[in-house]
């Protein structure tokens, strides 16, 4: 059984034990490309097995249940929309992102109970039949405090949850919560419930992906491959960053994206330092431009950077790109089951090497993060913490590696990101738009002699 510390958190060892139980319950994911027929096809057919949504839902819930059973928690109370989807297989769109409106109670040994907006609960009862009718219930929150606390929404919900746990004989066991509003926490504690952290447990459960999760992640990445091809053809002097964002949004939604969470478009002098947000800047000849495309397909996300130059490239821009690519390639060669996160981040440069005071200041430029139903899943690896607190890589983990390097004069920078699946023998890269060398987009300008500007093997050396 797991141990709950004095501060209400499960210990790392106890979480590991619970997650090991979840892995045994579901089995090792199959990560070979041919594990699911016709990867990239999304239409169900009668003549072969493709991504199996029923199997996806069953396996995710089985993992959560097994981890809960191996812990000292009596139940989990989940407000994070991704944890709700993981345990119930339900989704009502980006509308739910910031409201903390829906919640799931997962008691040990029981089906989840989801409270959601009334019309949604009715729809789930009618069409989401993988759980019992009593799993889908209409509920109400305070809408992030828009309904004043004295109305009693939080207190009423806490009484309802405590009553269910008492009926199941679980009210004396710790209740793990992922994220919570303070009035909700106080109301649950007023009912005598021992509220502890449950987010760490769910994060570790979600770190190992099932066969179907991996297929959905790969399809999501394939959609971004296509978006980058459209973007490469569109890029030229005179277009604006926000036009690039609009093009990518349209392409992804037209090709089945469920949500485009963000498209960062960064060009010219905005590349260094990296502002992490697009503008309406006009892109000019010789500019470096890099992009990060974050979207989801059936809930499974991407985080996928690519860097281009427009019309031509200088030697310093190409050198910066080569440095960023070198860090990436070195890190990828180190990935295998049993490798530790400190080994991976040792391939990345120290913060001081590219102009930052320390690793905290440079955080987010050279690191790795798990991807799944969100972009913040284990393993998260960085020079800030992984040398002192390494974690072990396992088959079925999926994560993104991000690298960055500025030009010598600081006028531009390169940004590259690849997503990988950890396999039994190493890893497989699932982001396929070409990134081995700095690509030049836009009009090629000819002088009448030799190669067009920026198209030779190394482009044109402008100093």
Low-confidence stretches: 455-461
Structural class: alpha+beta
Radius of gyration using CA atoms only: 24 Å
Strand proportion: 15-25%
Question: Helical percent range?
Answer: 25-40%
Identify the CATH architecture of the largest domain: Alpha-Beta Complex
Largest sheet, spatial ordering of strands: 4-3-2-1-5-6
Arithmetic mean of pLDDT = 92
- What kind of sheet is the major sheet? 6 strands, mixed
State the total count of DSSP E strands.
16
Task: Return the CATH class of the largest domain.
Answer: Alpha Beta
* Helix count from the secondary structure assignment: 12
Number of domains: 2
Shape descriptor: globular
CATH topology of the largest domain: Creatine Amidinohydrolase
The CATH homologous superfamily of the largest domain is named Creatinase/methionine aminopeptidase superfamily
Q: How far is it from the N-terminal to the C-terminal residue, by CA?
A: 64 Å
Instruction: Please provide the ordered H/E string of secondary-structure elements.
Output: HHEHEEHEHEHEHHHEEEEHHHEEEEEE
């Amino acid at each position: 059984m797991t141990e709950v510390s004095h501060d209400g958190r499960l210990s790392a060892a106890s979480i590991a034990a619970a997650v090991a139980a979840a892995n045994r319950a579901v089995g090792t994911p199959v990560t070979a490309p041919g594990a699911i027929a016709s990867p990239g096809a999304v239409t169900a057919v009668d003549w072969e097995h493709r991504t199996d949504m029923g199997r996806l839902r069953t396996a995710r819930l089985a993992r959560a249940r097994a981890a809960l059973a191996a812990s000292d928690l009596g139940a989990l109370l989940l407000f994070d929309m991704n944890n709700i989807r993981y345990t119930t297989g339900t989704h009502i769109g980006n509308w739910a992102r910031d409201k903390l409106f829906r919640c799931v109670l997962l008691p040990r040994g029981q089906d989840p109970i989801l409270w959601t907006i009334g019309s949604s609960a009715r729809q789930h009862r009618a069409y989401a039949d993988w759980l019992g009718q009593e799993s889908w219930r209409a509920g109400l929150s305070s809408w992030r405090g828009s309904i004043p606390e004295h109305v009693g929404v939080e207190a009423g919900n806490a009484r309802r949850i405590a009553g269910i746990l008492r009926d199941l004989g679980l009210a004396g066991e710790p209740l793990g919560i992922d994220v919570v509003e303070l009035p909700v926490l106080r109301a649950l504690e007023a009912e005598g419930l021992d509220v502890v952290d449950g987010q760490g447990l769910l994060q570790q459960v979600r770190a190992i992906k099932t066969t179907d999760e991996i297929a959905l992640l790969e399809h999501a990445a394939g959609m971004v491959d296509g978006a980058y091809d459209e973007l490469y053809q569109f890029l030229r002097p005179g277009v604006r960053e926000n036009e690039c964002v609009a093009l990518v949004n349209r392409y992804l939604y037209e090709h089945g994206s469920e949500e485009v969470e963000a498209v960062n478009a960064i060009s010219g002098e905005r590349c260094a330092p990296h502002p992490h947000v697009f503008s309406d800047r006009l892109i000019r000849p010789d500019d470096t431009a890099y992009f990060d495309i974050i979207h989801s397909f059936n809930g499974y996300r991407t985080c996928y950077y690519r860097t281009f130059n427009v019309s031509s490239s200088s030697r310093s821009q190409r050198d910066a790109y080569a440095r960023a690519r070198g860090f990436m390639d070195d890190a990828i060669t180190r990935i295998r089951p049993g490798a530790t996160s400190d080994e991976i981040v040792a391939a990345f440069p120290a913060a001081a090497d590219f102009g930052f005071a320390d690793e905290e200041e440079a955080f987010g430029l050279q690191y790795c993060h798990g991807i799944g139903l969100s972009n913040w899943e284990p393993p998260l690896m960085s020079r800030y913490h992984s040398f002192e607190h390494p974690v072990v890589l396992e088959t079925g983990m999926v994560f993104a590696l991000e690298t960055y390097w500025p030009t010598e004069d600081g006028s531009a920078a390169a940004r590259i990101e690849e997503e990988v699946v950890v396999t039994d023998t190493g890893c497989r890269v699932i982001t396929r738009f070409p990134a081995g060398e700095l690509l030049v987009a836009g009009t090629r300008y000819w002088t009448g002699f030799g190669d067009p500007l920026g198209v030779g093997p190394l482009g044109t050396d402008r100093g």
